[in-house]
Every structure is written in structure tokens, then in C-alpha cells.
């Protein structure tokens, strides 16, 4: 028998297409070699290798199928994952038996085949094959299969990263990201963390009325120390479900980062938090682009003027092209209705970007200014303000969850509560 790690799998290889809200955890740094028989499958695997979730994996593609794989590993060590395409049944099983004689222990095998048969699948599982994918396959099928090899079913779900960025400076992206995170934690009852990535001028600490002695800078400048325990010490508790990884907001040093400077922080947060909200500053650099492309969902915040429209469309088009297997970014309009200011209508934004804004938040300087100066969220200032429902709507769309329903109270509620207590 092949000593590959087995992957728990339903005994139905012809799975339905993934739902829109499907969350696929990214794969770790692994080596993957694919041996394809058709150019269509090779193209799908190549496209999968360009997906953000396989960004850390090293992928190599060869033609020749099973025969090429057996010949290749007679004199070379096997990778972490082998992807094999085969359109035969007997040839596939006998080929796997031959491959077992040259395969290293611990290597995982994904088979792509055309035969939709449960008995064949059972034979593959008995030989230790990790997954069987029915062809023809798309890029997302390959991504899902490889990534799922490293997500144990009994393990805690890997956290979802949500990136919020402004199309232009000063449009209120930080305010919206902080209030949306508040809605995720309070109304959706999800454990969440806000990571303020504007290390020089970040406002998350002010908005949440927190002044922690440590924060995200300690992690970024000490990447060798980053682990779960270290990150936990840096988190500042805002509510029962919401934590903050604050920016120092000091100018005693410059914050010039490499492209992968935040990778260790994000990976660690993913392993401990169901939801991570990134407050990304309005700048274009290697690490901001990487953070946006690597996020599970993206919200672009724009004000209704021409510069915001241009920037939002450029960002939307680039991110959509860079993430072909993900949902397109969402965007919202903020500060709508400034007195005497000419504005571009939401319909014009939608026509240019080819997508409707998720919400349009009106310009209300009194309540937003009071919240900012008091270190509070809008929901704390005015529990029934109309923008609170908009923040919740954004939170639901970004997380793929619906609101935790609250039971309506009635005149009998106190009596019912007493009876339940007894």
C-alpha cells in the first residue's frame, strides 16, 4: 500500500459546485508536482498555481500522466503532493501500485479521473490516495483539493481575512473598518481582531479608546518571535469578542516594509481568530498589494467624486484580475451628501465599476465626529442610528453570515424568563 496520508472524503466524487460563500484555507509552503495527460487539465493546474491560496506552494507541471510520474521518481525524491491525471481504471490501479514502490512516505496523492464510480474511489482510498477529483476540472477544483489536504476536518476553521482600504486618503475607510468589525463581534457574535496597518498614523487605538503598550509593530520588527502566544500578548481586548492589534502611531522610526513583512502575523492570526479585519492605509506598495490580494474578502471605501471613482475602478479591476477564483471586491460610498459639494451619483459609480455599491453612507459630521473624539463606535453613541444597519449589512456580506436573530420581547417575556429559570 502507498504510505500517503489519507484525506477524509465523502464517497461521492462528483461534488456540486462550491457555494459563493465557500472559504478555502490557503496551503502552507509545500512542493506540488502534477502529471497531466490533457492540455486542458494542465491549463487548469497552471491557473490554480496562480491562485493566491497556493501562493506559497511550489508547483511544477509535466505531461505524461502516470507513466511519467513513475519514471520521474525512480531517481528523484517525491514532493509533498503529487497530482495525477488518468482516464483509465485498471491502468490507474496498477500504476499506483508501481508508484508505491518509488514513492516516499508521507507524500499525498490527488487523482484526477473521468470515471465516476464509487467502487473505484474505494479502491483508491484503500491504496492511500488522498483525494479523487472528477474531470474536467477547473482551477478552483485543483485549489480546493490541494488546500484541503492540509486542513484537518477536526481542526478549528482557519480565520477569514477581510481587508478594508480607501480609494483615496481621508474617505473614512478606517472609521468604516472599525465599525464593521464592531458589528461582526457584537451582532454576529464572531471573535474578531482589528489589525491597524497604518503604523505611523493609525487611529484604531483612538477609535476604540485603547492605548496598549505593545502592538503590531512589535510583531513586524521581530518576525522570528511571532507565534500564537506572542501575538496573544500584543492583543488589546476591546469587547468580549473584539480585540485590537494596535499601531504605535509614532514617528520615531520609518516604516519601510518588504513585500512579505506581515505574512507571519497574518498566518498566526488566521490560526487563532475566526475573523481578521485589516485596516489598510491608502498607499500602494508591495506589502499593501500583497495584503489585499491575499485577503479572503475586500471592501473598497470611496467618496463620491472623480478621483475616488478613478482610483476605485483601478483597484477593483486589478484585484478582480489578480483573484480570478475569488469573489470580486465589494465597495461602498461614504460621506455622501456633503452640502454644496458636486457629487457623482451612485448609478455612475456602478456603471463605471460594473458593480453596485453595497451601501451609501450619508455625510453626518456631528455623530461621526462625536464618536471619533470620544473613542466610541457609532452604535455606542446612538443605538438606533441608520448607519448601524449599513455596517451590519457590510459585515454580513464580508463574512457570509446572517445576523444573530434577537427574540422580540412581549408583555409575557418577564414571566417566560422566570419559568425558564426555574
List the SSEs and their pairings.
Layout: E1 31-36, H1 39-49, E2 58-63, H2 65-72, E3 81-86, H3 90-100, E4 108-113, H4 118-126, E5 131-134, H5 139-148, E6 160-166, H6 173-186, E7 192-196, H7 204-207, H8 216-220, H9 228-234, E8 236-237, E9 242-245, H10 263-272, E10 275-280, H11 286-294, E11 297-302, H12 306-322, E12 330-336, H13 346-353, E13 360-362, H14 365-374, H15 378-381, H16 386-399, H17 413-421
Helix pairs in contact: 1-5, 2-3, 6-16
Describe this structure in words.
The chain has 422 residues and is α/β, with parallel strands linked by helices. It folds into two domains: 31-148, Response regulator (Rossmann fold, 3-Layer(aba) Sandwich); 160-399, P-loop containing nucleotide triphosphate hydrolases (Rossmann fold), CATH 3.40.50. The chain contains 17 helices and 13 strands. It has helices at 39-49, 65-72, 90-100, 118-126, 139-148, 173-186, 204-207, 216-220, 228-234, 263-272, 286-294, 306-322, 346-353, 365-374, 378-381, 386-399, 413-421; strands at residues 31-36, 58-63, 81-86, 108-113, 131-134, 160-166, 192-196, 236-237, 242-245, 275-280, 297-302, 330-336, 360-362. The strands form two sheets. Strands 8-9-7-10-6-11-12-13 form an eight-stranded mixed beta sheet, with helices on both faces. A five-stranded parallel beta sheet has the order 2-1-3-4-5, sandwiched between helices. The chain is elongated and about 75 Å long. The N and C termini lie far apart (59 Å).
Determine Rg (CA atoms, Å): 25 Å
Second CATH tier, the architecture of the largest domain: 3-Layer(aba) Sandwich
Distance between the termini: 59 Å
Class from secondary-structure proportions = alpha/beta
Q: Quote the CATH topology of the largest domain.
A: Rossmann fold
Low-confidence stretches: 1-20, 405-410
Give the number of helices: 17
Report the average pLDDT across residues: 87
Major sheet: order of its strands? 8-9-7-10-6-11-12-13
CATH H-level superfamily of the largest domain? P-loop containing nucleotide triphosphate hydrolases
